[in-house]
Amino acid sequence: MPSLTWNDALKNDLAPMDQTHREFVDCYNAVASASPEDFLPAFDRLLEHTVAHFELENGWMAAVDFPGCHRGEHDRVLAVMRDIRKRVEKGDMFLGRRLIEELPAWFENHVNGMDAALAFHLTSIGFDFEQGALEPLAEGETRAAGCACATLSGADEGCATTTPNAA
Fold first, then answer.
1. pLDDT tens, position by position, 6-20
2. Which pLDDT tens digit goes with each residue over 49-84?
3. What is the 3-state secondary structure (H, E, C) of the chain?
4. CA–CA separation, 124 vs 107, rounded Å?
């Protein structure tokens, strides 16, 4: 079974984001190394973490009116995880293990794509993570606008998406 290792390639230099990503890695590794009888409880902890993880990022995006492509990917991943969870509960370990095989590649891609863009955008516009809001502007000061993923790519179109394909 694959494992994830927290490393500098997964850092976005945004402490609250990096912390939740470290926690994802820990939860993922617990599922990946779980015995068959411990798989579902470990998967439930990963799912619970992922819901909270995505709610945190979705809250940041809502606070700054960030484009919905990133939230949409979160929704798709949770739908897959919830479906697989039901199947594992009914005894279909194959799809549960298959999802765990696919998650590292998806996670690394998501962290280094969509999450990197979000981190860049939040930092560039002065988002206050303790308050969950934008820092006040000084008189005459302006903010960067638009989706950071569009800024990073030089395009004004939406973000590309990637979703794990476990089925």
1. 999 999 999 999 999
2. 999 999 999 999 999 988 879 999 999 999 999 999
3. CCCCCCCHHHCCCCHHHHHHHHHHHHHHHHHHCCCHHHHHHHHHHHHHHHHHHHHHHHHHHHHCCCCCHHHHHHHHHHHHHHHHHHHHHCCCHHHHHHHHHHHHHHHHHHHHHHHHHHHHHHHHCCEECCCCEECCCCCCCCCCCCCHHHHHHCCCCCCCCCCCCCC
4. 24
